[in-house]
Amino acid sequence: MAVWLTSGPATTVIAVGGAVVMARLAAALPDAAMGIALAPIVVMGLTWLVARRVRAHTDVAFLQGPFWTGVVLRVLAVGAQLAIGFILYRGQVDFVGYWEHAQQFVDRVVVDGRFDLLFDSAFIDYYFGSRSMFILAIVVALMMLIVGPNIVALFLVGVPVSAAGAYLFYRAFESFAPDATSRRRYALMLFLFPSLAFWSVFLGKDVWVFFLMGCTTLAMSRVLHAIRIGRVLALGASLSMVTLLRPHVGGTLLLAVVAVLALRPLRVRGPALYLRPVLQIGVTAGLLFGFTMVTASALANIGVSALTVDALAERAYLSHTGFAMTEGGAMLPIAIDSGNPADVAAFIPLGVMTMLFRPFVWEARNAMWVVAGLENLFLLGLVLWRLPSLWRGVVMTRRHPMAAFVIVAFLATSVVLAFDWNLGATQRHRTMVLPFLFMLLALPRGRAERGAAEVAA
Predict the structure, then answer these.
(1) Which among 37, 145, 291, 376 is placed 20 to 30 Å from 255, CA to CA?
(2) What is the pLDDT of residue 12?
(3) Would you say residue 52 lies in a domain?
């Protein structure tokens, strides 16, 4: 398929089809002419930069196929997102709100020269609602410096950003993947899974959080291999950006980082070897203290007053009921009785299952839900088929700290996002857990499969 997509006839079909879609969008958006002209240039330039890294890879003969197919899928996803948003929903969608927030930031801060408003909490709360939304407005405004204030061009910039994020996840997986077959299996899942390609280009937090989580995961794999100041700074910077955009997801990644580093034995030599138990306790205490301080500060931005079980349970309950009461065809009935920690904890299995596998096919109310239901049915079958791979990932934690990071990140992030009790939100937000789930599913299922992979390699 990848060979066909890069052939002359396929390129012509894609180019003509893209031109038709752009022309239709231009009719719906009369001010889109400049973005339509600039977007292909910018997207091709950024994609070329990502492709250079892919071509330098040792497994380039295989990897280029999934990569370029994934790029094409993401371009088609952008066209579908814009068509659905402007033609089907007539602009009443989230990404238009993000774009308008960025316009407000440019008009009120940059044009008027009121940079003091960057630190004005009243201004941020009134115009943007939260600090994370304010940070997103700044990010989108910076994108406007490249392609102008055009929503079509801004959306298309997400194509190379999403492809780069997928490649970063792939490089991180290489650090503990046992064979080439596992790596290739992961590349196919990561670049070609439809909903992952569709939602990871969504204009707003989604595209940048996906990219930054890839940066965080790769940086963590490098730190676990050897601690270097540059790698630690890269881990801290990417994790900080994730926390600014989605504080609760940044907290789960930080939990995974701290858990793995705290439990990892220190490598000391010479006389310091006798002090290793004391040093281990000191490092663990320092990591836990840092995690508590950073997480408490981040969660305060989303209304968590204290880092206690009761406060976290109450915030989870409010999030659940808030999403459940959101109007629209994707709303779900409230499934938690109260903010009691026991009620909240009992909901978690149902919430995680819903995030990963719903809507089911029989719940479909329109064509888009049918497509989502069929994909979820495939994902459920894939998980059941690859259950031994999940267990292998657990076993690998004894020898590969990166496997432990992936498991903790997957479980913690799944639990946090399970309270986004709306099928539309869960489909979008599971892009933050699928890369970790696919890492575990890509591992060999058992000795026979592992042996066959080693023979093939």
Answers:
(1) 376
(2) 53
(3) yes
Q: Is residue 98 one of the residues assigned to a domain?
A: no
Does residue 132 fall inside a structural domain? no
Which pair of tokens denotes residue 190?
């990561």
Q: What's the mean pLDDT in 133-158?
A: 82
User: Does 314 reside within a domain?
Assistant: yes
CB atoms within 10 A of CB 153: 24
Nearest-angstrom CA–CA distance, 203 and 101: 12
pTM of full prediction above 0.70: yes
Split into its structural domains, the chain has a count of: 1
Task: Report how far residue 74's alpha carbon sits from residue 62's, in angstroms, rounded to the nearest whole number.
Answer: 19
What angle separates helix 151-174 from helix 180-192, to the nearest 10 degrees?
Answer: 160
pLDDT digits (tens, 9 = 90+) for 155-200: 888 888 999 999 999 999 998 888 888 999 999 999 999 999 999 9
d(CA 228, CA 207): 28
Supply the DSSP symbol for 416. H
DSSP for 321-350, written as a single string? HHHHTS-STTB-------S-HHHHHHHHHH
User: CB count, 10 Å around CB of 382?
Assistant: 15
Give the C-alpha separation, 330 to 314, whole Å.
24
Q: Which two tokens stand for residue 235?
A: 């881990």
Instruction: Name which of 161-165, 414-418, 427-431, 445-449 the model is least confident about.
Output: 445-449
54-58, 78-82, 192-196, range with the lowest pLDDT:
54-58
Q: Distance between CA atoms of 350 and 371, rounded to whole angstroms?
A: 22
- Cβ neighbour number for residue 367 with a 10 Å cutoff: 8
